Amino acid sequence: MQRGGAWGAAGARGAAAGARAAAGAAGTFPGGLAVKVCGVAYPECAAHAAGVGADFVGMILAPGYKRSVELARAREICAAAREGGAEPVGVFVDEGAEEIAEAAAELGLGTVQLHGDGARRALAALPMSLRAIYQMTVDAEGALQTPWPIDLIEEAKAGAAPDPNAWTKPTNWVSRAGVNGRRTVDWVLLDGARGGSGEQLPWGRLAVPRGSSRRGWALAGGLGPDNVAEAAALARPDLVDASSGVAGPDGVRKDPARVAAFVRNARGEPSI
Q1: DSSP labels for 152-209?
Q2: Strand partners, 112
Q3: In this predicted model, what pLDDT tens digit does every residue of 246-268 receive, in sequence order?
């Protein structure tokens, strides 16, 4: 796999990229750990992230954020990610199910990330063909703070506060978040209260929702090349996700050296 700092050297193409994409679709990742670079706003950044081995490239399709992209740019990002063997992911915040599904169809997305209360509430109404990354926020003590999925919210309408200990159990709270339990999610992503802010999570104290999704759980929140190995060792996630931790000086465009180091360090690969 080719690595390096120059955008033009972002290389895994052709058969190698296709083989990696197929392995990712089957849930098989190098070292058993999937890597996602999020908040990608430029196609050249997507190409580089894919070329150095990222499995997923996330783009913020919700408006109003410094890394938000419109559909025209998103098409270019998707094409660049796929060419390098990575899967593009659309991130939504307050959009409803219809808007999410339309954007996913327009871009040919197979996976969407539900990052806000509005988007999370849309889970049950999304097409079953869409894979979902369900984001949850974590407080400074490692406890999950995200509202319960739609069917469990009904149980709490009487005013009873959700039992915080319930989040630490391997329950089916995510798989039950749909009509008659038919809609589940592929990943549960733990992040800080302000996603994309670089806020670091207490890795050793997380209430990890194991067994609550098809493919595992993802760790975000303040990850970068300097701490991802420690975070992965302590929390033992199935996927690691970085955004601001691999950004350049402007906070938007990704820094190629930091992206390459993040992927390499996440998997314990030697520097070259």
Answers
A1: HHHHTTTSPPP-GGGGGS---TTTTSSGGG----SEEEEE-SSTTS-PPP-GGG----
A2: 90, 132
A3: 999 999 999 999 999 999 999 98
DSSP class of residue 252 equals: S
Is the domain spanning 33-266 CATH 3.20.20.70? The answer is yes
What are the sequence ranges of the domains in the chain? 33-266
pLDDT at residue 224 greater than cutoff 60: yes
Task: Report yes or no: 130 and 149 within 8 Å, Cβ to Cβ.
Answer: no
Q: Are 239 and 187 in contact (CB under 8 A)?
A: yes
Dig out the tokens for 120 from the structure.
């999370």
> Are residues 239 and 35 in contact, defined by beta-carbon separation less than 8 angstroms?
yes
Residue 63 confidence (pLDDT) above 90: yes
Amino acid at 166: A
